[in-house]
Amino acid sequence: MSEERSGNIGDAQRRGLVGDEALPDEPAAEPAALGDEVSSLRMILTLGAAGALAGLLIVMVFNATLPAIEAHRAEAVRLAVTEVLQQPARYEALSVTEAGLVELPREDVQPANAVLVYVGFDEGGRATGVAVTAAEAGFQDIVGLIYGFDPQSGTLLGMKVLESKETPGLGDKIQKDARFVAQFAGARPPLEAVKRPKGEEGEIDSITGATISSRAVVRIINNSLERLRPRIEAHFQEVVR
Amino acid sequence: MRQTTPQQDLLRGLWRENPVLIQMLGLCPALAVTNNVENSLAMGLATFFVLCGSSLLVSLCKRWIPGEIRISVYILIIATFVTVADLCLAALLPDIHKALGAFIALIVVNCMILGRQEAFASRRPVGRALLDAVGTGAGFTLALVMLGGTREVLGSGSFLNVPLFGPSYEPWVVMILPPGGFLTLGVLLLGLAWWEERRRERVKAGGVPAGADMEPSPALGMSLSERASSRGDAA
Amino acid sequence: MSELVWIFLSALVVNNFTLALFLGLCPFMGVSSRVETALRMGAANIFVLVVTSLSVSFLNAFVLVKAPYLRIIAFIVVIASLVQVVETVIKKVSPVLFRELGIYLPLITTNCAILGLAIFQTNRGYGFFEGLAFAVGAGLGLTLALVLMASIREETELADVPSIARGMGLVLIIAGSLSLGFMGFAGLLSSS
Amino acid sequence: MSRALTFRNGVHPGDAKELTAASPIRRLPFPDEVVLPLRQHTGAPAKLLVRAGDRVERGDMIGAAAGFISSPVHASAAGRVRSIGPWPHPSGGFEPAVRIVVDRYAAQMPRRRLVPDWEGLAPKEIVSAVQAAGVVGLGGAAFPAHVKLSPPADQTIDTLVVNGCECEPYLTSDHRVMLEYADRVYTGVRIMLRCLGIERAVVGIERNKPDAIETMRRAAPRDLDIEVVGLDVKYPQGAEKMLIKVLLDREVPSGGLPGNVGAVVQNVGSIAMLAEVFETGLPLIERIVTVTGPGVRKPGNWIVPVGTKLCDLIEGSGGLDDDASEIIFGGPMMGASVASLDTPVLKGTSGVLVLSTNETRLRDSHPCIRCGRCLEACPVFLNPQRLGSLARKESFSEMLEHNLMDCMLCGCCSYACPSNIPLSHLFATAKAALRRRPAA
Amino acid sequence: MSEPALGVSASPHVKGGDSTPTIMWSVVASLVPVVASAIYFFGPSAALLLAASCAGALATEMCFGQRGTRRLCDGSAAITGLLLGLTLPPGLPLWMAFLGGAFGIGFGKLVYGGLGQNVFNPALLGRAFLQAAFPVAITTWPVRAESWWSLRGDNFALPLMSPATQDAFSGATPLGLMKFEQTATSSWDLVLGTTAGSLGETSGLVILVCGLYLAVRRHLEWRIPASIFCTVALLAGGLHLLDAARYPGPVFTLFSGGLMLGAVYMATDMVTSPVTHRGCWIFGAGIGLLVIVIRLWGGLSEGVMYAILLMNALVPFINRATQPRVFGAIEAEGGS
Amino acid sequence: MTPSNIIDSIVIVAGVCLVFGALIAIVHGKFRVFEDPRIDATVELLPGTNCGACSTPGCRAFAEALVSGEQQPAACTVMSPEDREDVAELLGVEAGQANPRVARLLCAGGSDVAVQSAEYRGFESCKAAAAVAGGGKGCTWGCLGLADCELSCDLDAIQMDARDIPVVTPDLCTACGDCVDACPKDLFVLMPREQHLIVQCKSELEGDEADALCRVACNGCGKCVLDAADGVIDMVNGLAVIDYTQNVSADPNATARCPTGAIAWVEKAQFESPGGEG
Ligand SMILES: Cc1cc2nc3c(=O)[nH]c(=O)nc-3n(C[C@H](O)[C@H](O)[C@H](O)COP(=O)(O)O)c2cc1C
Ligand SMILES: Cc1cc2nc3c(=O)[nH]c(=O)nc-3n(C[C@H](O)[C@H](O)[C@H](O)COP(=O)(O)O)c2cc1C
Ligand SMILES: Cc1cc2nc3c(=O)[nH]c(=O)nc-3n(C[C@H](O)[C@H](O)[C@H](O)COP(=O)(O)O)c2cc1C
Ligand SMILES: Cc1cc2nc3c(=O)[nH]c(=O)nc-3n(C[C@H](O)[C@H](O)[C@H](O)CO)c2cc1C
Ligand code: SF4
Ligand code: SF4
Ligand code: SF4
Ligand code: SF4
Ligand code: FES
């Protein structure tokens, strides 16, 4: 696959880069049939030009598709947030920083780097809860989810798995098993995944045959809340006040 | 290089030189995304698009590409088309885009595409290059759909998300897991080899009277028929 | 720290690049008939993966900040060029090393594992050290799979494999069996 | 003196020696014809000295040694040379041989002493006399005895190992020699020690021959440093590498010779023959052969002229049983089948074993199940399993990397293999193929 | 030309006693008590399942084996079928057991060329396939049967269809209880086998005795189970001392799950274990270590099957690394 | 959105390309190792059977020898003449003259004419049988008929016939020599096709002894020596030996009076093809 291995380098290049000494392991006269000699400058320039063209093409397509892609992304976020915040009237995204939750500076949206949470409001404009995304290792690979949390009552509003590679038929029940998902609405963290629920607060009845995935969901929410809860509560105190 | 007819250019890649089943190229996407027909089809078509696009461009531009950097330029071209495909898929079919994940991007390194550029598009007129690309791309898609079909039918009991066996079908989960990919392709290859062998035997049986080509009887439980394959041992 | 360990182990066995993620199958199929070669291929792979991880960290931090949509093209160009440069240098500087490792380098350039690593690393937002752990784990995982496959293939060379299974059919079935075996590692270190 | 209790690995085939262990050594009547191949020993074949029609006396040299590692061949009976040409040889093919029609009426004793008395000779002269008398090892390999008696300068020999193991099943000629000719054995030991310029000899005898151990202990001369050791019964105890390991706890290096660890190994029969040659003044022209096995009617230990044809030997042993199915020169573990009843007894033929259909029934061969029993059996620690699969693919040069050349074809692996894989046969085949076409 | 009376053959002309079919059939025979105890514990379901898995194995061997029915005589396919059956939960539909046997023989043995050439243990490969294909069905353990005569689950589910009673029957094995509910089962129950589990999981003691018998008859390499038991006992003991609440003790670890069956009958499969003695020790130690790792830190409660399969993959490597030193080879050169 | 990202992206991609293109160019200039590209080109034209008939260890080695001028394209007997021309044209050399050779068997003693003195009980391979009392065949020089040669021939040029004698199909044989290596009795020789006179026996036995073991053995009667032109045939060790340097004067007459048929005039295949009537 190496491109230049079988080629021959141009005269200019040879003179410019290796001086006049002949390369020892090279026949003096190379057969002429093997193509015209190309200056390395031209090579580089061709490459650059091709690159520029490629860049141009890509950016044009990018610009053309960006609205649609953004729309899909926003829609996906809306669906998820609406679901885990129990149909808020509207929501707004905040960025999580060391200091707390801050409003997004509008200009440079950097969804890739910023950690976002979404605060939902009811018709009356009261903040009803916050939707948080989190991801950690599950049974197979990373499980990514979003959950809604109401700091005022201290309970969860809902949970939705966004991304998982858990075993179809087993682990993917964390996504597909409505009974399992429904348990999160109203549960009071810190949660605990158990086999046979005894009716205590914060208990989540784990899925038979997928205990590990169930526990992973619980663990992800617990860890995430543990980290963010003070900041969320602080923010809510501000908003409520 | 031997002369071929346009039909040959078109049909070759479809079956006789199928990139996945015969040449074993581009196996990663062929196994990674074929856990259902939908994904297989999407992946196949995306690859088809990239292949046709880049073959077209390469054979159009081959005069201006210096031999020394041709491969770099091919990669650039392919990468461009892949990015385009990636963006378009994300814009038009976001669910499938999500399911295919990184493997759309990995079309860039699908050896099959680079191979076609190097072996065909860079030396042939535009029309032929396109025919070849269409054939190969279709062959790739065909192989993917075969794999995806098998895996989806057994692994989910459905085809293109249409349930086939009713609700109490017990899906073979393994088929949509990684081992299922390897095993399905393996079995497919076994089947092909068996078919091929039978075909050859028939041809032989037609020409040579029966009995003449019988295997030497393995004595004492040792199949000695493979001793012929040991010639390499001096090397 | 434990995050790094998990990333490493996950790439090594749980989500082994070859056996679970289907990355880098071409060399896995092609260069796995001798243990010696497989080991060298593995070593070359680890090297390229680490180089890739480093350059991806660099590109993500400095070049692609504003234009993430250019990542495919940027990654592939940079990786391909770097590998080529390294290959040419090794070939001249140390013919011995070249014979041992260098001849595999060009093979690796067009290998999904490399670009796959770059893309996964970016998608998951891995930083410098995480990327490094990921690359080393993935490289060792590839090597492990390659070497296991090679030693098994050496063994089956002496077996009376039926004619229809000779070649890739059997290799794929062995890969499937290995993959079944590696499923035993699922959930490693994340089950608590 | 350190002594390993036993060597590692090996097998325990039933010894089946009761057939002939009690048969005293007897002489068979002279045959009508003897056939003397020129190749009867390890090394270069002898050079022909006679022509068809020549008259020869018993003990006349008819083939001369062709170099140092070679040995002369003597007429084993008085008579007339009928012809010279290819003749079936125990090694399988045809070999140039001298056919002598025995003169029924000739005195079968020579007119004069052909081998000098040893007492008065210097070691060097004894060694030359040994060569001139055509003495070779009678333990199987027929290695010229004089070579062992003249170790190269860089080897210091300190011990003579007398090999009385007779670990091959069925064979009893060494056993009988130790019982009947113990004194002659010790004379031979004395001669060898003199030649080697050493004092010490160790006699190794397996414990399934308690009478032989007893006799040899009693007969041991007091003036020499001689030790008679009873050994656990295990095949191949008698192989020189194993015997040296057991008796001296020394490991002959791979590819090396006993001389490398200071030992000379000689079979008891050879040593007795050495003494006999000097006693009678006749060169090596006869030997003791055990004729045994379920396929022969009257098993026994016979003294016969070298060159006696198999058919005569069998006839002297009462003839073949009806279901005799295979005739083997040597013991059942290492001996070679012969196809022709015309095959002559050589100097190195220690026994003739006739098996009946019962023993030679073909057993089904199964695929190797990698049970590892062949590894457990191989006394030189090879991996016959791997070697076997390589041999099946004819990967001969790869077999060399797995130390094929250390294999002594003892047959333990084949014996132990539950799948009946003819391992040692495969190795013999591979070695033959490599000899024909040396690995590149 | 006329038939010669004499024959010629290669030395040695005598043979040792055991033959491969004898070994195989004596293993089958030694499995009889294990099968009996499975039937004792699990009733007719056990007999049906064993029959189904054997049928799968034998049918595949017969249809696709290189020498058809003759191969059946060597008994190895029967062992595969029986051992596979013994690793299955009693309530499994018969069609799955059949499929497992067929897969194990087909893809674990015949593609490699049949007896003796395979790399992975066919029975375990079949089981691993089933576990990956039907993860729910194969981890559904019956709680208790009404009577000895009743079936322990929906054995007669139609081919390709789900068992009907999947949820109603599910219980947990001692390992599952330990791992997911931190509930220890008493060692006594474990040793006696009065727990939930697969057919062969509950008969630890019987298996041990049968294994001993085989080892005495030299039909089984005792070093492998010995090495597994030692490794497992040492590791489990050590960890138990560190944190008795988290890590179960050695007796529990040894007698729970399929460890006994795996160590005695499956790790010792000659074909898929090393040929050298040193290799056997290493192989066993590797299995022990992997079992502990998977059980304690992995996602699965049971690791024996995966441990053996993974070590099977390493066997060619182990064999190569433990080549014996040739007699008389200079000490320093030995090894490779 | 904004045109600024267009500029950005063009600059980034073109920049990356330029930088790395330059890097490659520089490194290449400094470190390049030359390898003749014609070798690869030649390898592609060769048949790739790696049979060794050209007396080099494989097609690539042959290509190297061709490029360096040590060999002529015609040395490869497997290539079709057109391919040979292609190679010659690529390298600008003469194709050279091919001297087609074929494998001939020096034994005709099939199971119908030769005595089997003992039954061989072992695995079916000539090499293995040869190691056991010569395989039990009466004539120790003769063909054992266990088909090692047939298996060794990659081109399927050899087939055992009903009498367990290997029959070479001359048109398929490339004279690669594999059968010569395979036969433990050294019965195969590679000869030019125009050598028609062949003694199909290696037995050193004479007269009745030879006849007793095989009906088609050379029993050393010497009639062929008399019937052939002077110096073509000689008797050595009771066996007729042909001096092929005198091949021009060889003619079919020499076979006329042979009592056993050991000497033969062979035009095409040596024996009747097993695919034919027999
Ligand atoms: C092929 C396979 C896939 C599995 N996938 C998952 C999974 O995705 N998530 C999970 O929690 N458990 C999975 N398991 C099961 C776990 O290993 C474990 O047995 C289960 O979580 C225990 O739960 P239980 O005690 O409720 O049966 C899988 C098991 C197998 C064999
Ligand atoms: C496997 C094997 C077994 C042997 N068994 C015996 C034996 O039992 N008795 C014996 O005298 N020689 C036996 N030999 C031959 C000895 O190695 C050694 O050649 C012999 O003792 C040397 O004495 P010699 O030259 O007098 O024959 C055996 C050799 C081999 C390879
Ligand atoms: C070239 C050569 C030199 C030998 N030199 C000696 C020697 O010095 N001392 C010795 O005891 N045997 C010597 N031998 C004999 C062998 O060690 C051995 O006795 C013989 O090959 C057969 O023994 P075996 O039947 O045990 O294989 C020599 C053999 C050969 C081929
Ligand atoms: C001691 C012993 C243990 C065996 N264990 C197994 C086993 O676990 N699984 C299996 O499929 N076959 C087993 N077999 C049978 C046989 O070796 C197996 O089918 C081969 O792997 C097929 O090539 C065993 C045989 C013996 C003698
Ligand atoms: S015949 Fe060779 S490989 Fe077999 S046991 Fe004897 S020495 Fe070892
Ligand atoms: S004894 Fe036989 S079956 Fe056992 S490993 Fe050796 S060759 Fe294989
Ligand atoms: S017959 Fe012999 S020389 Fe001719 S192709 Fe076959 S193996 Fe080669
Ligand atoms: S010619 Fe040689 S190799 Fe061929 S069958 Fe005869 S003996 Fe065997
Ligand atoms: S397609 Fe993945 S490495 Fe080739």
How does this model look, in words?
Chain A is of the alpha+beta class and 241 residues long. Chain A has helices at residues 11-18, 40-84, 173-176, 178-182, 211-240; strands at residues 90-96, 101-103, 116-121, 127-137, 142-150, 155-163, 192-194, 203-205. In chain A, strands 2-1-3-4-5-6 form a six-stranded antiparallel β-sheet. Chain A has a two-stranded parallel sheet with strand order 7-8. Chain A is globular. Mean pLDDT of chain A is 78; it is low at 1-37. Chain B has 235 residues and is an all-alpha fold. Chain B has one domain. Chain B has eight helices and two strands. Chain B has a two-stranded antiparallel sheet with strand order 1-2. The radius of gyration of chain B is 21 Å and the shape is flat. Chain E has 336 residues and is mostly helical. The longest helix of chain E has 23 residues, at 20-42. In chain E, 64% of the residues are buried. Chains in contact: A-B, A-C, A-E, A-F, B-C, B-D, B-E, B-F, C-D, C-E, C-F, D-E, D-F, E-F. At the B-F interface, loops of B face helix 1 and helix 6 of F. Strand 1 of chain E pairs parallel with strand 2 of chain F. Bound molecules: flavin mononucleotide (3 copies), riboflavin, iron/sulfur cluster (4 copies) and FE2/S2 (inorganic) cluster (FES).
Total count of strands of chain F: 9
What ligands can be seen in this structure? flavin mononucleotide, riboflavin, iron/sulfur cluster, FE2/S2 (inorganic) cluster
Helical content of chain F (DSSP H or I, runs of 4+): 25-40%
The global form of chain B is: flat
What name is given to the CATH topology of the largest domain in chain F?
Answer: Alpha-Beta Plaits
**Secondary-structure content class of chain F:** alpha+beta
How many domains, in number, for the residues of chain F?
A: 2
Number of helices of chain F: 9
Helix-strand pattern of chain B = HHHHHHHEEH
Strand content of chain F: 5-15%
Estimate what percentage of residues of chain B fall within beta strands: under 5%
What separation lies between the terminal Cα atoms of chain F?
85 Å
**Helix count from the secondary structure assignment of chain B:** 8
What are the SSEs and their pairings?
The complex is a heterohexamer of chains A (241), B (235), C (192), D (440), E (336) and F (278).
Chain A: H1 11-18, H2 40-84, E1 90-96, E2 101-103, E3 116-121, E4 127-137, E5 142-150, E6 155-163, H3 173-176, H4 178-182, E7 192-194, E8 203-205, H5 211-240
Parallel strand pairs in A: 7-8
Antiparallel strand pairs in A: 1-2, 1-3, 3-4, 4-5, 5-6
Chain B: H1 6-12, H2 27-32, H3 37-61, H4 70-92, H5 94-100, H6 111-119, H7 126-156, E1 158-159, E2 162-163, H8 178-207
Antiparallel strand pairs in B: 1-2
Chain F: H1 4-31, H2 37-45, H3 59-67, H4 81-91, E1 101-105, E2 119-121, H5 126-130, H6 148-152, E3 158-160, E4 166-168, H7 178-182, E5 188-192, E6 197-199, H8 207-213, H9 223-227, E7 233-236, E8 239-242, E9 263-265
Antiparallel strand pairs in F: 1-5, 3-4, 6-9, 7-8
Bound molecules: flavin mononucleotide (3 copies), riboflavin, iron/sulfur cluster (4 copies) and FE2/S2 (inorganic) cluster.
